[in-house]
Design goal:
CATH architecture of the largest domain: 3-Layer(aba) Sandwich
CATH superfamily of the largest domain: P-loop containing nucleotide triphosphate hydrolases
Number of helices: 7
CATH class of the largest domain: Alpha Beta
Radius of gyration: 21 Å
Strand content: 15-25%
Bound molecules: guanosine-5'-triphosphate, magnesium ion, zinc ion
Distance between the termini: 49 Å
Helix content: 10-25%
Strand order of the largest sheet: 1-2-3-5-4
Shape: globular
CATH topology of the largest domain: Rossmann fold
Structural class: alpha/beta
Largest sheet: 5 strands, mixed, barrel
Length: about 325
């Protein structure tokens, strides 16, 4: 069963050797197939489960209580309280959870498919609103010439100024992987980004034994083909959990009000002055501390434009 994430080498670093199987029937959702979930119990055993009727949608990273119904099978009865949940809106503007109990959102981009900075910003906001740290990774650095690399380094500077780490990797050439791995220990992280940027390829570098499917970009569109279909949690050899998620073409923030949106931009906090109005939307209101900071150059114009774009999308949705 080398394909089972829980059977990765050193996967049970959290458990002492010979741990007595716990019969309290708690479990961690490690693969979410939608209708079925693969659970890992505290002893590291896997159980294929379905949810009892009426239970809300479960996601990877959920801690649950379940009842066995047969060998390696069970029914999930309760979702234990979540520390946080990463949300997105689906095509019908309905909120869909992506993963729960997340410490870090790894926003992966690449030169191919083309780097979409607005998408990166949306993910940083989603991470902040969920109370998780964003980490920005530009993979496929092997495809960058010097000029392209310098342009991305300028972008990294913008994120560094806010306090975010941004780094280059190449899953193909095995560069930047150690630095990347250093950010993963002792926390639960989720890899997000467009289809085809190399999320699964990075996981394969960290867990070479793993039989994980990696897809090619479509020759016609240059886009990924949604190779990963089920969100899956992997245990890393040095501690830490890493969730691989299916790639997206676009990402819509979960339901967020205008004031909350401002909270998702970390650079809007801790400015010397405060906005004159409590309900300031930071557009053209007088005495706005944010627009003043943009004019001074303390807040990046590009990030501020992302804020305005998100605000107008929100207003368009009523
Ligand atoms: N040149 C180059 N190609 C890479 C690199 N990493 C991944 N690729 C290629 O990019 C393609 C997509 O890789 P995947 O790992 O399947 O991408 P993904 O982000 O998991 O895609 P989805 O599962 O569809 O979301 C494959 O053809 C990989 O071989 C890299 O560092 N450099
Ligand atoms: Mg994948
Ligand atoms: Zn303001």
């Amino acid at each position: 069963m080398s394909t089972d994430p829980a059977h990765c080498p050193d996967s049970k670093t959290d458990n002492p050797p010979n741990a007595i199987p716990d019969d309290s029937h708690t479990g961690l959702v490690i693969i979410n197939y939608g209708k079925q979930q693969l659970l890992e119990d505290p002893a590291g055993n896997l159980h294929r489960c379905v949810a009892r009727r009426g239970l809300e949608q479960m996601v990877c990273g959920d801690q649950v209580e379940w009842l066995p119904t047969g060998q390696g099978e069970g029914v999930i009865e309760t979702i234990l309280p979540r520390r946080n949940v990463l949300q997105r809106l689906d095509g019908n503007s309905k909120e869909r959870p992506l993963a729960a109990n997340i410490d870090q959102v790894i926003i992966e981009a690449a030169p191919e498919p083309a780097l979409d900075t607005f998408l990166v910003d949306k993910y940083t906001v989603a991470a902040e609103l969920a109370g998780a740290i964003p980490l920005i990774v530009v993979n496929k650095s092997d495809l960058l010439n010097t000029e392209q690399r310098s342009r991305i380094e300028l972008l990294f500077g913008e994120y560094n100024d806010i306090g975010y780490t941004a780094l280059f990797t190449s899953a193909l050439e095995n560069t930047g992987i150690e630095e990347f791995a250093g950010h993963l220990t002792n926390r639960t992280s989720i890899l997000v980004g467009q289809s085809g940027v190399g999320k699964s390829s990075l996981i394969k570098r960290l867990l070479p034994e793993l039989d994980i499917t990696i897809g090619k970009l479509s020759a016609a569109s240059g886009l990924g083909k949604h190779t990963t279909t089920a969100t899956t949690l992997y245990h890393l050899p040095h501690g830490g959990k890493l969730i691989d998620s299916p790639g997206v073409r676009d990402f819509k923030l979960g339901k967020t009000g205008p004031l909350e949106l401002g909270n998702g931009f970390r650079e809007f906090h801790g400015l010397p002055g405060e906005c004159k109005f409590n309900d300031c939307r930071h557009l053209s209101e007088p005495g706005c501390a944010i627009t003043a900071a943009v004019e001074r150059g303390t807040i990046s114009t590009r990030r501020y434009d992302s804020y305005r774009q998100l605000l107008s999308i929100m207003n368009g949705m009523g």
